[in-house]
């Protein structure tokens, strides 16, 4: 479904990726593990179009796409480590902001879609609440719903369990496995090998030579 070939990425003189390859099959859960500073977040950000790729090939569904096209294709929806919900906006406003502003979706359609996602993820009762009043697990679900608003082909999670207690960690694992049943392709960056083994079909080590 998505293949990266010979990817190169530098920050200044620092080489983060050199001839890096990655293959993700549709519907698969891929865990990305590796040392701190190894480039796991950078990899997700490149796939989301939030970070440029210096060189290499990106092949999506058998077709090579331009390195700069990842930005416009919305291939990857992002669930950030600390959720990054806008504190001054309600749950519903957090979800509808980007589709309305950047994707020309009408406000009515965006609200309908947001309400469906929030219902499915069992946080609809919180739709008018502000992020500060949500529990960790609720924030996680709202962040996931927000990532799903753009109909991404892939959902990427950056350290989804880092701030969570074991019960919430299990809840995140359950959510990821539920999404997998729906056929959603997912990439999960994590430090937690036990978590990776629980959820992933494939575990990819990034710059693991120092491990
Ligand atoms: N915008 C940037 N400018 C310069 N250097 C950067 C930038 N973003 C990341 N880096 C550097 O690139 C390297 C990889 O960072 P990245 O955040 O991808 O690692 P990581 O594997 O996700 O680490 P961690 O597990 O600690 O979150 C680090 O050395 C980091 O300092």
From TrEMBL:
This is Amino acid ABC transporter ATP-binding protein. It comes from Pseudolactococcus hodotermopsidis. Pfam families: ABC_tran. Coiled coil: none annotated. Keywords: ATP-binding, Nucleotide-binding, Transport. InterPro entries: AAA+_ATPase, ABC_SmlMolc_Importer, ABC_transporter-like_ATP-bd, ABC_transporter-like_CS, P-loop_NTPase. It comes from the Bacteria. Residues 2-211 form the ABC transporter domain. GO terms for molecular function: ATP binding; ATP hydrolysis activity.
